[in-house]
Amino acid sequence: MTATATHNYDDTRLVGIGVRLLLPDATTIFEGTFSLLHVAVKGDTLYRGVFAVTMFPIRHPDRFVSLRYTDDRDREQEIGIIEDLGVFPTEAQRLVRNALVKHYYEQTVSRIYKVDNRFGLLFFEVETQLGRREFVMPWRGDRAEDYGATGKVLLDAFDNRYIIPDLTRLPASDRNALTAYIYW
Amino acid sequence: MGRSAKAATPLVSFWPMNPSSDLILHAIPDAVRERAAALGFHDADVLFAVRSDLDADGSSVDVWTIVERAQLASIVATGARAGTVVGPFKVAEITKARAFQKVGSGFLQVQVDGVYVDLARYANSRRELFGRVAQHIQRMKDGHPPPEEVLARPSEMQCQECGLPLPGLRAQCPRCVGGRGIFARTLGLMRPYLSSILLLLFVMVVGVCLDLLPPLLQRMMVDRVLNPIKGAPVLSHAESIRLLLMILLGLVGASGSRCLLNVFIGRSTSTIGTRITKELRERLQTKLVSMAVEYYNRHSVGSLMSRVLYDVDYFQGFVTQVAQGFLLNLMLVLGIGGMLFYMNWKLALLVLLPIPFVVVGTTFFWRHIYPRYYKVWDSQSKTAQLLSGLLSGIRLVKAFGQEQREQQRFSGSAAYLQESRRSLEASVATFNPLMGFVFGLGGLIIWYAGGRQVLESHISLGTLMAFFGYMGMFYGPISALSMFTNWVTGFLSAGQRVFEVLDATAVVTEVAKPVAMPTMKGRIEFKNVTFGYDPYTPVLKDVSFTIEPGQFVGVVGKSGSGKTTLVNLLCRFYDPQEGQILVDGVDVREMRQDDLHRHVALVLQEPFLFRASIAENIAYGRPDASPQAVMNAARAANAHDFIARRPSAYDTKLGEHGAGLSGGERQRISIARALLCDPGVLILDEATSSVDTESEQEIQKALVALCKGRTTIAIAHRLSTLKNSDHIHVMEDGRIIESGTHEQLLAQQGVYYKLVKIQTELTRLET
Q: What is the pTM of this model?
């Protein structure tokens, strides 16, 4: 048995020195000048040009949203973390979700029609939520990463992201076409 | 969605045209002409217009950003929001411009009224273009716009000839280079051995002729001696015995000659094969050593080792296969096939019946079993990496009590290895017996058809026996040829991995006529240097400073501020995207790399020692150094005494990474190594940060000797070690934000002052 399994950890000791949680009664989220996301935190200040990032985009895509901004020295700073967006007013939820849409641009692959290996490059023909697409990725280990337990992210030659959320849910022929090359 | 949808849905290529049609100089694009004119844009004033492919919400639309000297704006050209405008913004109102990278896309942003506004969104395919656009706007804003050619130059990520995305930045286009097949390239490796190979081929032809002889002799034995056919000359008993002995002598002669030829062929192929693999390993090693550091960020050491150590062995197999496998079998098939048709073409046609099954089987093998070889290789490589990491970090594993988890991880990897091997071997184990069965059926057909012809006196018994003799020899090579795919698949995957390394482009290359630097005074100048490991995310931003010869300069800053990147650029592990680094007035890109590396010495936080003697480690940069010079360097580095106390002193063999020495001892050996090279420029990258205070004092003493009279750049967290520097640069977020002597910086009461205060406070608390 490992120490991890037997030890009782006191996580409360990290409260205060860890991340700041943003709660609805102390946080106002609204659209301000230039249609930018603005966040006001009670006892703190008003942040303009705020953007949102999920901290666990695979395991908890709807929770633990980090609200961030660029400071006057061009450094990215965190305002705080929204643990559960659902407890915020509807309009604030909409604005944060829009901010998340702006932060992530990924195509979700539902079918793989063809994979060809030529010149050390893989030529893909796939179906995504945007329709039928073809892309080229270098055939290298660093271009296909794990995505959760059973998924993969394929990075094409330009770093465009193609997500296969669950390989086991692809038709067998598609899966075979993929795993013939992306076997790792 | 079914496959029938294939024709109905339009196919969209997700890479831009090259040269780019997304950039228009000095004109408003027709798609937004009317809207732009209404906003006050005129063709005559437009510097450029650039097209992006995404709306703010991520939908696919065309958005044109139009830039004039006085104003800029973005206009959506297509989709539901066509005509929507962001801006226009007066250039005078803009303080900054940037390409802000998100996940999978980016935004062209301008800072207005202290806040960044999204001007246009683009998919990563256009990242390179928009990176240039942002820089162009920023430079324009700063009053020194770069030439338009910089903006309009073709992408470095795509082939300028065919538009194909390149395997790496500025890599050669694999399509246009016209890469020859792996087989052709392997044959090319054999060119120096052409005469030996031709001799081999001749010997093989002789060997095949010898192989064809025994069945003919056996037919003569049956039809003339054992069971004479009608019309054959009648022989007396003594004549029959004499002929029998002569035939047997012929068989012995053919068999003995074949044996000798086999010995010759085996020895020759082994000589050629081992030479080729030796040369290939040397080429791979030379290539790997010449590769830029960036290459090693993308490839694991385990997988590269596997290529040099194991994949190369397939090339020896290639020679063996060509000489003793494929080519020999092919000749046998042709020779025996010819004999079969010569003896009886009808029976020979029946012999060919199983051939289509062989073709089908081979095709199946290629399609379904070929990829499994990659999987086996991958699983072996991953298991090796996991084990190597586990054993190297065994102290950490034990300290955190993670033995069980590591065991589970290894178990998973071992299971992957087992499954991939099982899957491959199960397929092969099924394929082989099935093919054997098919050949067996062919033999039975000949028994029937040939037997009937003998019974009906169409052919003699001797002819049938000879036919069977040849058929036995015929199916053997056919079977071997079909199995040849088994080997070919393994060879191709290994060959691909080997040639992938040989074809890789070193990002940092030497110019055609590099400047020789036999000596180096040590004047260093960084001029407007901008660099990012990811070219679109600068780690150093417009950094400029000068270090005079012999100066000791400290560089401080938080982790990630860009300190080590300065060193990486000075050593030319990478080249800057913008700006210049000059040493003694010569751009390091123009300098002979050997000279640069000989005159610039590095002492790192984690010194790397090789598995060799202490003396060899100290003399690593100067293998010809005399024993006295080695001892002098060690003495100056405060290493001599602890070395002398070892039973084998300087001849003490060190374990991996200097095992057997303390951290401080390892560091002092690395300082001695640097000292022995007498560098003009010395870089100390956290040289004392991972050792205890006592060791640090010893190392500091050593460093005093090392730095004397040399240009020294010292990166340190412990600011006390930099107090006596001639100059200190404080870095933050890729920029130098403060510069001066220790006293000047304290007087400024800025970032350096705060850092010193924090460290003084920490030291007080520790004591």
A: 0.64
